[in-house]
Write a structure and sequence with these properties.
Blueprint: E1 2-5, H1 15-19, E2 26-31, E3 34-37, E4 43-46, H2 48-55, E5 62-66, E6 72-77, E7 83-88, H3 89-134, H4 140-172, H5 183-199, E8 203-208, H6 222-243, E9 250-258, E10 268-272, H7 290-300, E11 306-309, E12 321-324
Parallel strand pairs: 1-4, 8-9
Antiparallel strand pairs: 1-5, 2-3, 2-7, 3-4, 5-6, 6-7, 9-10, 10-12, 11-12
Helix pairs in contact: 3-4, 3-5, 3-6, 3-7, 5-6
Length: about 325
């Protein structure tokens, strides 16, 4: 394969293209006009302009290239070496998606299992009491009360199993762009997944002013958008707990808003209020910072009608906004 320096006419200056994570990227050594893979020994030919750009590239700076099909690639020098992380942008996007699904499943399933354990224990207790009541000459109203409690526990379990099924779908479902959903429905699905996670931390989650998104209509790639919204809300929940541990009433709001007239092509916005805390996901994620994580989420939304923007110069509170085009 031959790689050449990306044409300056292509949109390689997108902020998130520079900052998004390299997920399981190949490590290659640059030698003159070629690169040699550290593991397989395979050789990639470098066009002269690209070879020159790599020779002068600073550590951790991304250089963009393209293959014979015109697909974009990214190359980033490893600090103080002639080695580069090398990955196509499409491979980075796939890797970020797989890692996000795995990390969210691990993060949310623990809360869900904890929530399932409580009603299961209560259901077992009520069934035991009901069995004793039926075997003794207790009053009928006492037996009826026990039956009602069992029914309540069953309903609670049904809701939790629905959440479990939604979580499994987010983890395993095929990403089909033709599957559409209303924005408000996608947000409510994400909030439903997170309510058990928030309840363990005494945090409430809610969506407000979602009617601002109603006029947009169904969106493709609904699962991809739900994953991104869920990830942002997880960071907001953990940030709320970390920054305000003594406050009992904590609320995370996903707020819809009409776009300002100056924003051409943007029909509505979704704001995640409050700072974000990255440490909850960082042990399981291949990102070095919150900014890199947000850039990876933005990369996942490429090609969809939704764009994620954030303030890269404010790493403590980047204020992410989802813009619906």
């Amino acid at each position: 394969m031959t790689l050449q320096l990306a044409a300056t006419t292509k949109p390689v200056t997108a902020l998130h293209w520079h900052a998004a994570a390299f997920v399981q990227a190949n490590l290659q050594v640059v030698k003159g006009a070629s690169m040699i893979a550290a593991t397989s020994g395979a050789t990639t030919v470098l066009a002269p302009a690209l070879a020159q750009a790599l020779q002068s590239a600073a550590s951790n700076v991304v250089v963009f290239a393209e293959d014979p099909q015109g697909d974009p690639w990214r190359l980033r020098r490893v600090a103080n070496s002639d080695c580069f992380e090398v990955q196509s942008l499409a491979a980075s996007r796939r890797g970020c998606l797989q890692q996000l699904r795995s990390v969210l499943a691990a993060q949310l399933s623990g809360s869900l299992l904890h929530e399932l354990r409580n009603p299961l224990n209560a259901l077992g207790l009520q069934c035991d009491l009901l069995g004793r009541a039926l075997a003794s000459p207790l009053a009928l109203d006492s037996q009826t009360q026990l039956v009602g409690r069992v029914a309540q526990m069953r309903e609670r379990l049904r809701h939790l199993l629905e959440n479990q099924n939604a979580l499994v779908a987010s983890w395993l479902a095929e990403l089909d762009p033709s599957i559409t959903a209303e924005p408000s429905a996608v947000i409510e699905d994400a909030l439903r997944l997170l309510r058990s996670y928030g309840s363990q931390r005494e945090v409430q989650l809610r969506g407000e002013q979602l009617e601002a998104l109603a006029a947009i209509g169904p969106l493709p790639d609904a699962l991809r958008l739900r994953l991104v919204i869920t990830a942002l809300a997880v960071l907001a929940v953990d940030s709320s707990v970390r920054l305000q541990p003594a406050q009992q009433e904590q609320v995370i709001v996903l707020r819809g808003a009409k776009a300002a007239a100056a924003q051409r092509g943007v029909r509505a916005l979704l704001l995640i209020e409050g700072p974000l805390h990255f440490e909850a996901l960082s042990p399981h994620w291949n990102c070095r910072s919150l900014t890199e994580f947000l850039a990876s989420l933005a990369l996942l939304l490429d090609g969809t009608p939704v764009a994620l923007t954030y303030q890269a110069d404010a790493p403590e509170n980047p204020r992410p906004v989802l813009a619906f085009n």
